[in-house]
Design the sequence.
């Protein structure tokens, strides 16, 4: 069960091996001084082993940016949980909007990834979020329901305890356009109540993601229903991770 604020670094297709290792060493030192915040890092697949090694024995969790639910098989380009476990990874991100919208991953495929990852004992960050036209036409909640339904309809207690939801409005990712505190608060409240209704459990932690920076994070993390952030661009330097961690840990 996750109790602290989460600060999840999604490095996407950035940072090579040496840079990943160096930034992780800085984050290990940073994490050692935090009381109320956990740092999780999702490097590119080629750096997972190095990041796990650099983070070994620290409070930092290392994970993958995407995960396949099968143990092995003919799935070119995919990575399984047993492979990740061997490296020391303990969580996976699934359903990132870049996976959904640039690589055509459907709600059902994402749900299969999520369920397989949860069943294997990994922590799982399920990303959900609406596109701009969907928000503007008032379809946000129904889009989120469709993304949540195939995961929540079959959730055991053990799976529930390892699940984290990241609410990332697609129009806010990498655009510098952050959702307003009211939008975040209302949407998190909706996700939370829908989760309870569908799964019969109190909602898991819900992170916000989309153009989070040290300049806007204080107003986001101070919202009750926000348990942390999934951070892309601002997770790539130690300076901005330090600033975000400081805000989160206040
Ligand atoms: P961003 O990315 O912080 O660069 O907007 C967030 C994400 O995609 O998780």
Sequence:
């Amino acid at each position: 069960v996750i109790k602290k604020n989460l600060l999840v670094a999604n490095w996407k297709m950035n940072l090579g091996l040496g840079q990943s290792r160096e930034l992780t060493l800085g984050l290990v030192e940073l994490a050692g001084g935090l009381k109320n915040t956990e740092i999780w890092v999702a490097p590119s697949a080629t750096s997972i082993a190095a990041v796990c090694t650099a983070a070994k024995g620290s409070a930092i969790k290392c994970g993958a940016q995407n995960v396949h639910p099968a143990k092995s098989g003919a799935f070119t380009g995919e990575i399984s949980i047993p492979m990740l476990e061997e490296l020391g990874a303990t969580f996976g991100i699934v359903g990132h909007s870049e996976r959904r919208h640039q690589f055509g991953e459907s709600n059902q495929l994402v749900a299969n990834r999520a369920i397989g990852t949860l069943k294997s004992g990994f922590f799982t960050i399920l990303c959900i979020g609406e596109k701009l036209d969907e928000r503007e036409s008032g379809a946000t909640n129904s889009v989120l329901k469709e993304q949540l339904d195939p995961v929540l309809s079959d959730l055991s207690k053990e799976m529930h305890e390892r699940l984290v939801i990241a609410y990332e409005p697609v129009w806010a990712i990498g655009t510098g356009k952050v959702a307003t505190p009211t939008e975040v608060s209302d949407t998190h409240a909706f996700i939370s109540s829908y989760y309870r209704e569908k799964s019969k459990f109190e909602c898991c932690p819900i992170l916000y993601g989309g153009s989070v920076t040290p300049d806007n994070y204080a107003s986001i993390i101070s919202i009750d229903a926000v348990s942390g952030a999934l951070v892309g661009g601002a997770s790539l330097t130690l300076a901005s991770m330090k600033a975000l961690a400081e805000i989160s840990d206040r």
Summary: The CA atoms of residues 7 and 58 lie 15 Å apart. The longest strand covers residues 5-10. DSSP finds eleven helices and eight strands in the chain. The chain has a mean pLDDT of 97.
